[in-house]
Amino acid sequence: MKISNFRKTSLSKSGPLIALLVLMIISTILYPRFLEIQNLLNILRQVSYTGIIALGMTFVIISGGIDLSVGSMTALAGAGAILMLNMITNALVGFSPMWLGTFLSILSAFIVSLAIALSAGFLNGFLITKGRIAPFIVTLGTMAIFRSLTLYIGKAGEFRSVNSFYGEMGMSVILGIPLPVWIFFILAMILSFVLNRTRYGRYVCAVGSNEKVARYSAINVDKIRLISYVIVGFMVGITAVLISARLNSLSSTNAGKDYEMDAIAAVVIGGTAMTGGKGSIWGSVIGAIILGIINNMLNMLGISPYLQGLVKGLVIIGAVSIQRGWINNSRSEK
Amino acid sequence: MHTIIRTEGITKEFSSVRVLNDISVEICAGEVFGIIGENGAGKSTFIKVLSGLYQPTSGRIWFDDKLINMRSPADAKRIGISLIPQEFSLVSDLCVYENIFLGEELVGKHGILDIKAMVNMTRQLLTDLEVSTINPYAHIQALSVAQKQMVEIAKAIAFDSRLLIMDEPTTMLTSKEIEILFGLIERLKQRGVTIIYISHKLKEIKHICDRVMVLRDGEFICLEDTVNLTIDEMARRMVGRELKDVFPEKKNQPGDVVLSVRNLCVDKLLYDISFDLHASEILGFAGLIGAGRTELTETIMGLRRARSGTVVLNGNQLSIQNPWDAVDAGLSYLSEDRQGAGIITSFDVIKNITLASLKHYAKPFIDQQAEENKAKFYIDRFSIKTPSLQAKLEQLSGGNQQKVSLAKSIDVQPKIIIVDEPTRGIDVKAKQDIYIFIHELAASGLSVIFISSELEEIIGMCDRVLIMRAGRIVGELRSDKLSEEEIMYFATGVKGGY
Q: CA of B340, closest CA in chain A: separation in Å?
């Protein structure tokens, strides 16, 4: 009895990892070049943009919330970044030394992106906690608001960067690994530590597990919730810079489209319960990579891009139903 | 008069804890049959067995001299037994007639609801009950509490109920509404309906019931004609039991005043609450369920807003807005609702114990070794039985969960600890352990506010007892004057005014 329980729990924890390995084996069989370093790095780079957002989304979902606005927020923050970049770049034309000018303009773009996304996250959190409005509703609303603002500012067109170094930064590779992948993994390490080894991380789980117990244990439930939306805002601010730098431009209509779905899917596939209370940052990293591999395989195998959504949808539903099955089994055994 | 329902040896156990033992009783058609007993005496369990909500562990029930076997409330309803629960089961968004016919809708040809027939029947029912002022189309949420109760009763008798069970029907009613209810009971009685009436209010029992059965600790105590029993005698039989040696000897020497509460008011819940708490004192709060004891502690702990009043701790007036203000001031609270507000069942033992005191372990990163050491300390001190430190709380028994909850409340290093029903639903051994810990805490200089509905433990544990009723403190008893009867007199309104 005890042993089978133990197996169940370790299985549900390592489930996403097992799924990833199985998927990699299948991919290698179907398409041997899958395992080439360049292909793997490509997949990692592709998933790191929404993966970074998924790290923040993990906190939101563990605390019992949801954030649908991250995609529009990425567009809005990215738009702000490019506008600021262009303004500073133009103002600093002829500035010497040139590297300092470039550095200052990129830094200012970064700061603006973070400022926009942090404020947007704060706004979400504030409306949810102080306004007592359901997270789904608030972020559904702000999703529309952020996108609309971006379209208005960009006149539904493209924001083009005038600074080619910005694009180079987005494409840069350090020690053989693309910059976004570095940032993705460093942030994952930091946030995993925050979740497991700080008061904030413990409180997020407590609030998501049982809000009333948390409140009676003198935890400031509203503050914990609000901070989770600010964290996801921070992640969006970083992704916005990385994605706009990658293309050295940003489409006001398409930027960040479906990011909320990919981020939420990564978190869910990674084993974090939608009902809140528990979850894992590395699970979300694996979830993001699983989604990336599936996309990659469908491309490699020449399957219609229109069918990719179908496969992604099946994987999300399948992943959750398997996890649900584990939970139900372990319950019925008691 | 013939017997409508007869029980023989009804026994009910929950995970091998016996809450109802061998109840055999005959109830006559057309009588109002009262059941009284302390909280936990088994009254609610008994009527849940009679109304099909629980299946008895053993024992048999005859209805109209036929042996019956009810598997659900629907079975009970079919043979004519209806329960009006303490908390109403009406759907507040639906209107009166929809509620009365919920699940039993009248359907005309082509499967379309026959609204007209249902409304007419509802109107007829309400007229019969002499409450025709209630509109069948009115939404439940627009009705007063008394009107809702009338609708509940109408719903119960709509389908020819012959036995109507009322669980504490008057707790939320005003005295005028109670009169209306009693009038209705008289009329139902004349129509031959049998009523089982449960109440804590002994005056009402005396007034309305023909016979009264007393239960205590799940045992049948006596069954008497109400005319032969005074209210004092009822109270005495409800509590009459000897104190066993489960309580530690009282040798605390209460010191100076630590906490002074003055004129605390919360709208519609608490009226003008004032009391003092001394160092090393165990101060009991007795009263019936709903008397306002939990609401009082929640207000002191910053979980509810007070309208007025002051709380002074060691000479400093506190301004507690939030639970964390209260903890910072040196207060701690063990909630009565263990799984709802005390512990997180999906967290392990360590994380539960340090949940409220985590800042002592995080500087800024959590020192897991220190957490583990502290958990070991409490497991040892409170003899908590757990498979491991990492075991989830859902794997622990109720008594051990409660000990973890107590450890959590103490780990914030409070000056004052408020324990609310600290032994509810746990076995005798764990109870005794908890009594000893609380005593040790008081001996070490802490002040304890001890809230309990079990008079036995209030008397066994407390240096002084305040009795609350309907949001007010109605009596104070010192240790030497404590008796269960005396407390019951205040709690049920025989003494103490209001």
A: 6
